[in-house]
Amino acid sequence: LYEKKKDLERRVNELRALKDTMDPERYQSELEKLLVDLSLTNQEIHKMEGGAP
Amino acid sequence: VNVRRSGLTVAGCMAVVALLAQPACAGQQGDSRSDPYAAYAAGDYDAAIRGLRALVRANPAEARPRRTLVAALAEVGRYDEAEAAAKETDSAELANSLGEVLVRVGRLDEAVVAFRRAVAGRAADRNTARLNLAMLDDRRGNTEAALDSFDTFIDLYNGSTRLDARDLIAVAEAVRRLGVRDPQLFKDAVKALDEAIKEDNVTIDGSPAGYDARVQMGNLFLEKFNSTEAQPLFREVLEKNEHHPGALLGMAVAKNFDGSAESMELVEQSLKVNPNDVAALVFRARLLLDLERPADARKDIDTALSIDAHSLDALSARATMEFLAGDDAAFAASRREILAINPVYADLYNQVAELAVRQRRYAGSVELAAQAVALDPRSWTGYGILGLNELRLGEVAKARTDLEKSFAGDPYNPWIKNTLDLLDTFGQYRIVKTARFELMLYGSEADLLSQWIGPLAEEAFDSLSRRYHYTPKTPVRVEVYPRHADFSVRTVGIAGLGALGVCFGNVLAIDSPAARERGDFNWGSTLWHELTHTMTLGLSNHRVPRWFTEGLSVLEERRARPGWGDDLTPDFIAAWKKGDILPFSRLNEGFVRPKYPQMVIFSYYEASLVSQMIEERHGFDAILSMLKAYGEGKSDETVIQDVLGMKPAAFDKQFEEWVRTRFAKQIDAVVVQDEGLIGRALGAVRGGGDRAAGFAGDLQRGAELVKAGNDDEARTVLQRARDQFPEYVGSGNAYVQLAGVEERAGNLAAAVSDLEALAAINENDYDANLAIAGLRERMNDPRGAAVALERAIYISPYDKALHEKLAALHAQAGDLQGVVRARRALVALDPVDKADARYQLALALFEAGDTAGARREVLNALEIAPNFERAQELLLRIRSGRSDEAGADRTMQETGS
């Protein structure tokens, strides 16, 4: 999960770097997808670590 | 290639600054009691004329005394005698003088004959006669021939080793007029006049050369919008000859340029010396038209035309009056008459257009200026008027094109230059659209201001449309400037305008709250005020007089919110008691030519009272009828008679009685002191000075009692002060002191009541609103506290702590939209923790049921801080609430990409 989280963070950074070159709607949609995945991954990490979701 | 295009080639142009340091007109003064030339130079015209007549009798063949006699007679408007004196001899030496007298009375054909005789006879002033012939060509529209003749004066200058002052003045006038082809030549005109002024110790016949050169140079500076350099030149002439009509007129024009009321007095002094000076009569007529006194202006124009029936200036002034009165047939006839004299006289349209602007007829001025440039493609003034007024109508692209043409032809006009510079900044603004408005907001404050400006503008539009039964054309454009200098340039072309807002009809411009210190003004009431103008200008076809449109705008401010709009002040009452408040029938003067700095503010308030009285006594329908009647071109006198059924003098009396009755208590309370009531009262409050009388005395005693800790007695005294003049909300007012007394006594409700009363009068008291909010919060009244803080936003919306507090208060009061507004403001105010501000906004939107907005904002927060856990949780909550929609989004992406 940590690896996945790290990978998602890297992809968010890469996407942000491309923001000015992309169609805004497509950017927004890809960003949302990545952020949702990242949020879900964090949630799972918290669960497995026994913390609050 | 004509190398002369570079203009005059003789070196040695003297800097004007250095020139002005020289003693004025030195060296030509003799004893005016015995020397008629000296008497003429000193402005003792009667003595000069008597003495010169004697000299002429003694030496009938000598040209100099006769030319001087003709000049002196002409200067005081005794044209018949001047003509007779010039005609007593056949000498060519008097022909130019005769021609100049004939030009003054409009006998142009005879003048041409006289000038030609001076040239053919090689008279000493033949070059002036040549110039006069070229000027007559110009006046008749033979522009190219005239310009070619003016061009020969460059040869005269460049080909002569030394020219006398008279010829240098002729050269200057010629190259000034050539400036229409090449604006750099204006500098050469200044150079030639510099040299003429250096000849100060000589005279042109009896007239010191320096007088004419200085007046001409002053006029040149005024033509190039430089009153600062013009005035010392006129002043120097007046120091030697206080009656010099040309210098008095020049100074009058300069003072008018500066917006000073002295202008009228100066032109009247000039007309006292020469009551038949057409230029001065026309100038006074224009001042009177500015004051919206057309009947008086008409008298001057008629007098001017009785002296010179062909004066293009006087005919244009008459055409202006006809245009402003909506008399299309008369205007068309005047236009035909003018164009028959000079078929390319674009200034006809320019002059009408400029006055139309001053009376708020912007669309009309665009049509007129368009005709000016169609008639004369070198009318740089015309392009300037066209561009500035297209901008006032919101036609930005067209405006830029025309302003650039104007600037290329005449780069000396600061209005045009400043406006072009301002247009270059328009890229820094954002257009925010609402249902009926197009808001032009500065980029960094657009998100913040649009939240309040948009809804307020829409509310005002609905409210005012209902009341005035009028729906303006939409969109209405509102430009909001964070720098006052930019607002000022947008409004009048130069920095320094004192106003807060302006309305051109369907385009408004206002200062943003960032443009001034907090507490200086209320931008909400300003917007409401300007939008009222949109109604009253529209309803009256832009013909409503200044007093009425301003009066109604202030009245509507007062109706819009408690506290908005001007209120009674002790200063106003003091001015009233001293007779410094204008009667209604002269109220426009208070706006256009205020006699003291506060007169404008007093005039706004007085106009609002007049409007209020009309509404109270005759009903609001009477106001609508008046606006309609003004729209039909009727005068104040006719409108007051037709709608209110009385003469202006009776109306003046009625208004005075109304004020006396309504404000009897306040009139009694104010004791007029020479040194100024408020200054005295405040001095007293601060502990200095004598004990002031009236309510000011009670304020002083109240403050002393508070300081001594005697709150109970202070309460009684301060309440008495408050009741004597409830509208006084300035420094040291009773309300703030009473609130302090009540708060210390634990009477929070009473303290709030005092401060609410203050806020209901003073629209700018930011601190009072914050204090109310604090007290109401302590009283467990979050809704009331929020209302006070929302009121403060119309004074200044930039305090983050205020919006944080508002968000909390709205949340407590259950006002979810209020929370959203406050959170949006915090995002717009460039917070340090941007991710958190966005998250808080997303949360507020989610709780207010705006899932799409919440999703957008939470993504904005996570874009900044992807691992912001609370934002991640919110995103997942939002997603879980709309899983079907999200699924649909995914399907579309999958099939579409």
Structural account:
The complex is a heterodimer of chains A (53) and B (897). Chain A is mainly α and 53 residues long. Chain A is 79% helix and 0% strand. Chain A is elongated. With 897 residues, chain B is mostly helical. Chain B has 48 helices and 7 strands. Chain B has a 5-stranded mixed beta sheet with strand order 3-4-5-7-6. In chain B, a hairpin with a 3-residue loop joins strand 3 and strand 4. Chain B is elongated. The two termini of chain B are 66 Å apart. The N terminus and C terminus of chain B are likely disordered. The chains are: A mainly alpha (53), B mainly alpha (897). Chains A and B meet through helix 1 and helix 2 of A and helix 46 and helix 47 of B.
Write the layout of secondary structure elements.
The complex is a heterodimer of chains A (53) and B (897).
Chain A: H1 2-17, H2 24-49
Helix pairs in contact in A: 1-2
Chain B: H1 16-20, H2 36-42, H3 45-58, H4 63-75, H5 79-87, H6 95-104, H7 108-120, H8 126-139, H9 143-158, H10 165-178, H11 185-198, E1 203-204, E2 207-208, H12 209-223, H13 227-240, H14 245-257, H15 262-273, H16 278-290, H17 294-307, H18 312-324, H19 328-341, H20 347-358, H21 362-375, H22 380-392, H23 396-409, H24 414-423, E3 429-433, E4 437-442, H25 443-468, E5 476-481, H26 484-492, E6 501-503, E7 507-511, H27 523-539, H28 546-560, H29 570-577, H30 587-592, H31 599-618, H32 620-631, H33 636-644, H34 648-662, H35 664-669, H36 677-685, H37 694-707, H38 711-724, H39 734-744, H40 748-759, H41 766-778, H42 782-793, H43 800-813, H44 816-828, H45 834-847, H46 851-864, H47 869-880, H48 883-896
Parallel strand pairs in B: 4-5, 5-7
Antiparallel strand pairs in B: 1-2, 3-4, 6-7
Helix pairs in contact in B: 2-3, 3-4, 4-5, 4-6, 5-6, 6-7, 6-8, 7-8, 8-9, 9-10, 10-11, 10-12, 11-12, 12-13, 12-14, 13-14, 14-15, 15-16, 16-17, 16-18, 17-18, 18-19, 18-20, 20-21, 20-22, 21-22, 22-23, 23-24, 24-26, 25-27, 25-44, 27-28, 28-31, 31-32, 32-33, 36-37, 37-38, 38-39, 39-40, 40-41, ...
